[in-house]
Amino acid sequence: MYKSQAETRSETTTRLRPVPAEPDPALSWSAPMSPGGVPGAGRPAVRFGEPDSRPRPFARRTRGQVVAAAVCLVLGTGLIGGAVTGAWLADGPEGPGTRHAFAVAGDLWHEVPVDQLFPPTVQGRGAGPGEADRVWTRIAVAPDSGCKGAFDALLSRALAPVGCERLLRATYTDATQSHVTTVGLLFTEADAPGMEALARRFDRERLDRRSDLMPMPYGAKGTAAEGFGPEQRASWAISVLTDAPVVVYAVSGWADGRPVDEPQPAEDAMQPGATSAPAQAGLGHEARGLADRFERALRQRAGTPTERPS
Questions:
Q1: pLDDT at 96
Q2: Distance separating alpha carbons of residues 271 and 278, to the nearest angstrom
Q3: Using CA atoms, how far apart are residues 256 and 239, in angstroms rounded to an integer?
Q4: How far is CA 282 from the centre of its chain?
Q5: What is the 3-state secondary structure (H, E, C) of 189-232?
Q6: Predicted structure pTM score
Q7: 283 contacts 235 by C-beta, under 8 angstroms
């Protein structure tokens, strides 16, 4: 059952925890990890060679020899420490740090409060046509759910190989309340190779640009998105991440509920000189701008520095 606009501004999903009155230190991504926990709980132990216990003949050393030996010891220790630290930090594309970030991203749907995962307002500096700034306001949050009935049949079939752990959705409107955009975070059951395979297929077959594979909107009664249904979809963007088990998407339309005969993918609607109705209205920028910002925020929360090429 849908909730009123006043309720949806503070509502939380079934699984996502509500925002605490004061910041919870335990939710800080910089908080120290518990012993025996995830990587970062402590520096790795490094064992050097056992000391040589055999007696050595006593030899008198000059002051210069002592100083030289001390300098060599300091330099050698620095080089060894640098090498160890470098090996510890540079995990590489398939190292433990990358695998940990992938796992952390997969847990965000039940670890992060709804107001942090779907902020009440989102700043879009330079996200509009002509690099105009945008500000989006959240008007509805859907209860977290599975994927049954959440996608058109063909898109469900395309996403089936990675499975559906959880689907989170929220709908935003622009500052003028002329446009509405639903953002979706599909948390999959796939591992990294599974996500990479899906990303390659989407890229190779251009599945993110097919109008029969558009995501569904989420319209809530009593909000500007009340009339935002399947026929009102105007532009959309889909990103299959390879550094997280997540598919990020956004679909936009007009807030007045007008139907759209020829929806256009965001990448085409954003092209200079595009003359379609979605392009002229900037709806491609709405979809791509929000999708990009949620994708970026998800990576930052998971501690994933960059996405590996798919």
A1: 55
A2: 11
A3: 27
A4: 24
A5: CCCHHHHHHHHHHHHHHCHHHCHHHCECCCCCCCCCCCCCCHHH
A6: 0.68
A7: yes
CA dist 310 and 300 (Å) reads 19
- Cα–Cα distance measured from residue 304 to residue 127, given in angstroms and rounded to the nearest whole number: 23
**Distance of CA 162 to CAs 71, 201, 202, 210, Å?**
57, 12, 13, 19
299: its two tokens: 């990576």
Contact 261, 201 (CB under 8 A): no
The H or E element spanning position 264 is strand 264-265
Amino acid at residue number 305: P
Give the CA dihedral 34, 36, 37, 41, nearest 10 degrees. Answer: 60
Q: Is the pLDDT of residue 42 over 60?
A: no
To the nearest 10°, the Cα dihedral for 221, 225, 230, 235? Answer: -170
Q: Which two tokens stand for residue 269?
A: 């609607």
Task: Name the 3-class secondary structure at 3.
Answer: coil
How crowded is residue 95: how many other Cβ atoms within 10 Å of its Cβ? 13
Task: State pLDDT tens for residues 284-299.
Answer: 999 999 999 999 999 9
Hunting for tokens 């020899």 — which residue is that? 65
By C-alpha distance, which of 175, 258, 252 is closest to 218? 252
